[in-house]
Amino acid sequence: GAGVSQSPSNKVTEKGKDVELRCDPISGHTALYWYRQSLGQGLEFLIYFQGNSAPDKSGLPSDRFSAERTGGSVSTLTIQRTQQEDSAVYLCASSTNGGANTEAFFGQGTRLTVV
Amino acid sequence: GENVEQHPSTLSVQEGDSAVIKCTYSDSASNYFPWYKQELGKGPQLIIDIRSNVGEKKDQRIAVTLNKTAKHFSLHITETQPEDSAVYFCAAINFNKFYFGSGTKLNVKP
């Protein structure tokens, strides 16, 4: 596609429910990143994929958070038993191969509100 | 791991003035330093970047400088315009991971 696409753009869910956030990276980009941005805050790293594998999951805040990537393309971030503190904008980015000298392009984000 | 610090957190300038945002990093292995602009309700957009083998890069009104010895890099915006108002993030890339600064909210007053 022309850019990184995320869906849904907005999600309101009840506390305790599970949610799935989707990221469609730019075609051909092997590296994919998930970040979380709380209101007025900076970008918090969650997980990094190279192809279908996740060499760095160090940013996932708890075992309620998981992510997968299939076919080296689409990625899904799943949050189980959502809590109010999970409310944030979840941003996805992709780059050609990760690392130095590779520009990362961000999607518009999914705004998650847990009520 | 890498630690990126960004200053100031807010910056207010008059239209036409220059704005400077500064970042420091801790790990000398970091070798790519992009800057992102984030407008309200949108994802961050890459505006300029610099690699560790370059000291300065300019693109129209935007320039970035890098001092590897001191481990700091800066964003310079000249002749600021109201549409430059946004949050700006610096980042350092280290072992395939982007480490972001905490952001600078730039307000350009007409």
Structure, described:
The complex is a heterodimer of chains A (115) and B (110). Chain A is an all-beta fold and 115 residues long. In chain A, 0% of the residues lie in helices and 49% in strands. In chain A, strands 2, 4, 5, 6, 9, 10 and 11 form a seven-stranded mixed sheet that branches. A four-stranded antiparallel sheet of chain A has the order 1-3-8-7, with no helix packed on it. Chain B is mainly beta. Chain B is 0% helix and 57% strand. Chain B is built from no helices and eleven strands. In chain B, the strands form two sheets. In chain B, strands 2, 4, 5, 9, 10 and 11 form a six-stranded mixed sheet that branches. The relative contact order of chain B is 0.35. The interface between A and B is medium-sized, with 26 and 23 residues.
Q: How widely separated are the two ends of chain B? A: 41 Å
The protein's oligomeric status is heterodimer
Low-confidence segments of chain A? none
Q: What's the helical proportion of residues of chain B?
A: under 10%
Number of helices of chain B: 0
Helical segment count of chain A: 0
Order of helices and strands of chain A: EEEEEEEEEEE
